[in-house]
Design goal:
single chain; alpha/beta; Rossmann fold; 7-stranded mixed β-sheet; about 20% strand; binds 5-O-phosphono-beta-D-ribofuranosylamine; EC 2.1.2.2; Phosphoribosylglycinamide formyltransferase; transferase
């Protein structure tokens, strides 16, 4: 059975959806006060949180993450709103075993503001993408993506909500396709 861990920096709504459907070995957050940690507590998922600034450098911070992944024998790392670039220490240890969700149809609108950037560009459709993580920003090989329309009458809030709804469908689908067993198949 494939063991997964989820990394999130903030709210963790994608983590919540994943943890409701799959056995998540642990959640890691790079913010000790992230709301995702409350969600983990409510769901009974083990959580770890530490911050880059608590370490001498990013290599030491990422080595602590690698140690956690090794200790739990994690097969697949699921980034879901983890707002840091994966650096060489983590990547060299786990490349090919890290996926990320991005709230746009890559290669359109990479970066930290995919929804806002698509909205401001006035597109009539954007999307959601899940991809392998490489050393670039949202550049890794695409696993699966869906289009999400911008509808007449949308505000950025309704557009954003629609994108998130598609995220909550796509992440579980991809996990199943990658061989992660759901809790109640
Ligand atoms: C999601 O839109 C995800 O695609 C992006 O960050 C957001 C995280 O939201 N990378 P949440 O923390 O899962 O609620």
């Amino acid at each position: 059975m494939k063991k997964i861990a989820v990394f999130a920096s903030g709210s963790g709504s994608n983590f919540q959806v994943i943890a409701e459907q799959f056995d998540v070995k642990f959640i890691f957050s790079d913010h000790r006060d992230a709301f995702v940690l409350e969600r983990a507590d409510n769901l009974g998922v083990p959580a770890y949180a530490f911050e880059l600034k608590e370490f001498d450098n990013k290599a030491a911070y990422e080595q602590a993450i690698v140690d956690l992944l090794d200790q739990h024998q994690i097969d697949l790392v699921c980034l879901a709103g983890y707002m840091k670039i994966v650096g060489p220490t983590l990547l060299s240890a786990y490349e090919g075993r890290i996926i990320n969700i991005h709230p746009a149809y890559l290669p359109e609108f990479p970066g930290a503001h995919g929804i806002q950037d698509a909205w401001e560009a006035g597109v009539d459709q954007s999307g959601v993408t899940i991809h392998w993580v490489d050393s670039g920003v949202d550049t890794g090989q695409i696993i699966k993506q869906v289009r999400v329309p911008r509808l007449a009458g949308d505000t950025i809030e309704t557009f954003e909500t629609r994108i998130h709804e598609h995220e909550y469908q796509l992440y579980p689908q991809v996990l199943v396709e990658l061989g992660v067993e759901p809790k109640n198949p």
